[in-house]
Design a protein that fits this description.
alpha+beta; 8 helices; 6-stranded mixed beta sheet
Length: 321
């Protein structure tokens, strides 16, 4: 019998972990192992994708406003300043609460970029997902929307792309006409989406005297929703002190009714009479901010009345994210 030749295996090209692209879970892993992606390098990516980042906007300028625009405000925009400047052919980058047809991002015909904030994301880190969408929007063809995808687990976050020393100044709109430069000549699909969005938008105004406080109008009563940066336990203690002292309201007919939890921050909510508009609440909100600052500076143990007030406030918390 002929002597068998020893079999040799061709060497596969070596790919470092940082070069392995994200592919479908059932596709062969690009590293060349022969295993499916989900059983190879996709395992670490999937684990990273499921790890929830409780404060995804921490470190960004205007963190409280990012949370408000993500969860509370129907129609708003904010210009973004990138750390490395704008690429050639991209005149501006604008954050928007939502885009037509729920696109994650859109590169307009003039090359400018709109980045949607209120879209569903594929991982537990909204910041990483948004950064991935933004990077792709900067290089996509003008006049093209950017579709969602699972961001690479080791990709950059918004904190890596945005100038952290820049201002973050949201502009609240009454409708979504900012979607298109010329709403009258929009495509039928965009026009229909614009009409539906405008019909559902709740009138909202950002207060000017305090940070990240938003007045909104509803059929039965108005509300003030105020995103605050303070640690939750410390803030609840301070609110309880004011509530027990009868100084937690914003004037006659107003009432602190509870709070939201959103992306690691607490959002106290007040009911306001329908007759109280955004301008009416500016001065009371500024005065409340002074009372809250004094309460936050107090470290004495809570009294029995304050503990009861705190329990009531805790029971009226609603988690949004």
């Amino acid at each position: 019998m002929a002597k068998k030749r020893p079999q040799t295996k061709a060497k596969r090209p070596q790919i470092t972990d940082g070069e392995i692209p994200v592919v479908g879970a059932r596709e062969p892993c690009p590293c060349g192992s022969g295993r499916r992606y989900k059983a190879c390098h996709g395992r670490a990516a999937a684990q990273a994708a499921t790890e929830l980042v409780h404060r995804p906007f921490d470190g960004l300028p205007g963190e409280c406003d990012w949370v408000a625009l993500r969860e509370l405000v129907p129609a708003a925009t904010a210009e973004l300043t990138l750390k490395d400047g704008l690429p050639e052919g991209v005149p501006s980058v604008t954050l928007a609460t939502v885009l037509p047809m729920a696109w994650p991002a859109l590169r307009r015909d003039d090359g400018s970029v709109l980045l949607g904030l209120q879209n569903d994301t594929a991982s537990g880190d909204i910041s990483r997902d948004l950064a991935d969408t933004l990077q792709r929007a900067l290089t996509t063809e003008p006049g093209t929307p950017v579709q969602g995808r699972r961001a690479p687990a080791d990709g950059p976050r918004l904190q890596d792309l945005i100038d952290l020393d820049s201002a973050f100044e949201p502009v609240v709109h009454s409708g979504f006409e900012f979607w298109v430069p010329d709403a009258e000549n929009a495509t039928p699909e965009v026009a229909a989406s614009l009409e539906r969005a405008n019909a559902a938008a709740i009138p909202t105004v950002r207060l000017t005297g305090v940070d990240a406080a938003y007045w909104c109008e509803t059929p039965d009563k108005n509300h003030l929703r105020w995103v605050m940066p303070h640690p939750e336990e410390q803030l609840l203690d301070a609110l309880a002190r004011l509530h027990a002292a009868g100084t937690s309201s914003l004037g006659e007919g107003t009432r602190l009714v509870g709070s939201f939890r959103a992306h690691g921050l607490t959002v106290p909510v007040w009911d306001l009479p329908s007759s109280v508009g955004a301008e009416d609440i500016e001065k009371p909100a500024a005065e409340f901010a002074e009372r809250l600052a004094a309460a936050l500076a107090t470290d004495a143990p809570l009294t029995p009345d304050e503990r009861r007030a705190r329990g009531g406030l805790t029971n009226r918390q609603v988690t949004l994210s």
